[in-house]
Design brief:
253 residues; alpha+beta; Arc Repressor Mutant, subunit A; Chorismate lyase; six-stranded antiparallel β-sheet; two-stranded antiparallel ribbon; 12 strands; 25% helix; elongated
């Protein structure tokens, strides 16, 4: 590598460095590759290490880099596509191997969820917990709320506990005729439980995708999926296969 000095620019120096680093990531590095140490990078770009750290932190926030304890700073894999289009509609777990059932509990849901399900606020429902992992790291966590009326044939024998019970609830849910679904997306901050499961700090930016599933004129289930904002991107129909990096090069994912 040659030495690249930054020219005088009006924007903050760390931000200009972030742009230069982005171009280098697109042209010189591959996914999973470890970056040179801070001393080498600071020398290459002719900046103070404090400026370099600001730029690296920004790229980590954007999901372009990952800092792994005991390994160093590596190039992050492409973001996971979160399909929010309406073309494909299916029950949770139907042909979707990306999500793994973790656990299932029976408890009263949050008030807003109870209102959406049209159940009493003190009425227990099945709460299925699922997780999604990409390239060995957690990228999303989901809580799926299912009223007892949606899975009336579920028995303790079929679903004793844990992941087995979660799979049984999903299996029973898929036996219903899906009439439709709607979905909402909002930017949020990771709560303590979400942060722990997603390996992020509390308050880290997340995408919260809420989906209601309908059958027989009622809401049969409600999903609240929390995605790491630094590793995921929203996709809409046919446009979901295109990924555009901030740098000068465009590539298809």
């Amino acid at each position: 590598m040659g030495t690249t000095q930054l020219e005088s620019v009006a924007e903050p120096k760390y931000w200009h460095l972030r742009t230069v680093l982005t171009e280098a990531l697109d042209s010189e590095f591959t996914v999973g590759e470890i970056l040179p140490n801070e001393r080498e990078l600071a020398a290459r770009f002719g900046v103070a290490r404090a400026t370099l750290r600001q730029a690296l932190e920004q790229l980590e926030l954007e999901g372009r880099l990952q800092r792994r304890r005991g390994v160093g700073t590596t190039v992050a894999p492409p973001r996971v596509g979160v399909d929010v289009g309406v073309e494909r509609q299916a029950w949770p777990g139907a042909g979707d191997d990306a999500w793994q059932p973790v656990d299932c509990a029976v408890a009263a849901p949050p008030a807003a969820v109870a209102d959406a399900l049209d159940t009493g606020r003190d009425t227990p429902v099945h709460i299925v917990r699922r997780s999604r992992v990409s390239h060995g790291q957690p990228v999303a966590a989901e809580l799926l709320y299912v009223p007892h009326s949606s899975v009336p044939d579920l028995t303790g024998i079929d679903a004793p506990s844990g992941a087995a019970r979660a799979r049984a609830v999903l299996r029973e849910l898929q036996s219903l005729a899906l009439a439709g679904q709607d979905r909402a997306v909002e930017l949020g901050s990771a709560r303590a439980d979400d942060a722990k499961e997603l390996d992020r700090l509390p308050g880290a930016p997340v995408l919260v995708v809420t989906t209601r599933f309908f059958t027989g004129g009622r809401t049969a289930a409600l999903s609240v999926a929390t995605y790491r904002a630094d590793t995921c991107r929203l996709t809409f129909g046919a446009s979901g296969g295109v990924e555009i990096h901030p740098g000068p090069q465009h590539q298809a994912s």
